[in-house]
Amino acid sequence: MPSRAQSTVIGLRPPTLQTILESIAKNIAIVQARSDSRIMAVVKADGYGHGALTVAHAAVAAGAQWLGTTDFGEAVTLREAGLSVPILTWLNPAGFDAGAAAAGGIDLAVGSVEELQTILEQPSAGAVRVHLHMDTGMSREGVPHSEWDAIILRAVEGQRRGKIRIVGLMGHLPLADRADPRANEEAVSLMHEAKAKVTAAGFDDPLTHLAATAGALTDPATHFGMIRLGAGLVGIDPSGTTDLSGASRLTAPIVHNATVKSGTAVGYGGTYITDRTTRLSTLPVGYADGIPREISPNASVEIHGYRYPVVGRVSMDQIIINTGATYYPRGTTATVFGPQDGVTPTIQDWGGWAGTIPHTIVTNIGSRVKRTIA
User: Fold this and answer.
1) How far apart are alpha carbons 194 and 142 in whole angstroms?
2) 8-state DSSP, 143
3) How far is the C-alpha of 165 from the C-alpha of 305, rounded, in Å?
4) Helices and strands of the chain, counted as H and E runs
5) pTM, 2 dp
6) What does the pLDDT read at residue 10?
7) What's the rounded Cα separation, in Å, for the pair 141 and 70?
8) Dist. CA 335–CA 250, nearest whole Å
9) How far apart are CA 46 and CA 50, in angstroms?
10) Please, how many CA atoms are within 13 Å of residue 257, restricted to the half-sphere of its CB?
11) Is the distance from CB of 262 to CB of 244 less than 8 angstroms?
């Protein structure tokens, strides 16, 4: 362990979340090596917290042929940013503009007869490109199996009227994170059934997509014509089978130091008591910035190649780390999480320490944290 760290920092660099473009490209390459299907880069939730436009541009540059969002406004933003690849949006909690979708070349997925009817009733100068979203086992979104015939019949009518054009078919895998193709068999069977019904109704062969990251990495039978890569873009494999590259690095400066005696209570409630004379340093990130309040005693950060534990309760604006006998000057940068290198904590580590999944770690990083690109 070093006895003292040297630093020439004059000012403080604010807490920063850096998006690593090379990692996004590496993750897409891993998936491309396992599938012949097209890749849709799903950049919902602001690109899983990494910046939707940043991730979208990087993904397309790396070979993604489609982009996906879960809100129409997000899709419009992508198109206005100059991204010309096909874009699909589903769920659309704020609604959608069918005319703008047709004019902007934005595909809409519909998961109910009611949604499809909304498109048919809206004015549009051209046909809206539509993906029928079928429930393949989630009971969360998508057309229930009992209503497949009804929506297909309505779609036939809408296409005959020139209001829509059925170009795609989608579903979701409820059990893909088990990394067991047997768990996906029912959903795959339902997707084949849906595709057979759609083609039998006279539609051209629809672009069919069922798998997200876990299915893309573990089960070729789920790939169909396209796979949706969302969490995998930023280094998260829900199946836990593949080492992907973390696409973000969260850093924060030390803003305060103290040397305290053995028996000193730390933080709100005094939940941590020092057992020896030690050095404590404060980092200006807390639960308002996305640091989980409920974390295990194993939580740590990295400074100059060493891990130091987070001690005491997470505050709204700060956490405290115990650096033992090592003194780090005010302004020294600590890495809260980053790509796996054997020392730096990862978002997977933080998910485990907080009893959650890594997705929540990156999507909860607050607006006070500066964003940069590497």
Assistant:
1) 12
2) B
3) 56
4) 11, 19
5) 0.94
6) 53
7) 12
8) 6
9) 6
10) 15
11) no
Q: How many residues does the chain have?
A: 374
Rounded Cα distance between 210 and 222, Å, is 6
> Cα torsion for 291, 292, 295, 299, to the nearest 10°?
-20
Q: Which residues contact 270 (CB under 8 A, 6 or more apart)?
A: 312
What tokens were used for 240?
Answer: 């836990």
**Is residue 194 a contact partner of residue 171, using CB atoms and an 8 Å limit?**
yes
What is the per-residue pLDDT for 309?
Answer: 98
In the structure encoding, which two tokens stand for residue 237, read together?
């494999």
Which one of the listed residues 26, 44, 197, 327 is annotated catalytic? 44
44 belongs to the catalytic site: yes
Q: Helix/strand/coil (H, E, C) string of 45-87?
A: HHHHCCCHHHHHHHHHHCCCCEEEECCHHHHHHHHHCCCCCCE
Examine the pLDDT at 269 and tell me if it is beyond 90.
Answer: yes
pLDDT at 95 over 80: yes
Residue 69 reports pLDDT greater than 80 = yes
Q: Which residue in 26, 195, 261, 268 is the catalytic one?
A: 268
Q: Own/partner pairs for 83-86, CB < 8 Å, 24+ apart?
A: 83/56, 83/57, 85/60
SS3 34: coil
For 59-86, what is the mean pLDDT? 98
H or E stretch at 272: strand 272-273
High-pLDDT (> 70) share of the chain, %:
97
Contact assessment for residue 248 and residue 18, using Cβ atoms and an 8 Å cutoff: yes
User: Is-catalytic flag, 306?
Assistant: no
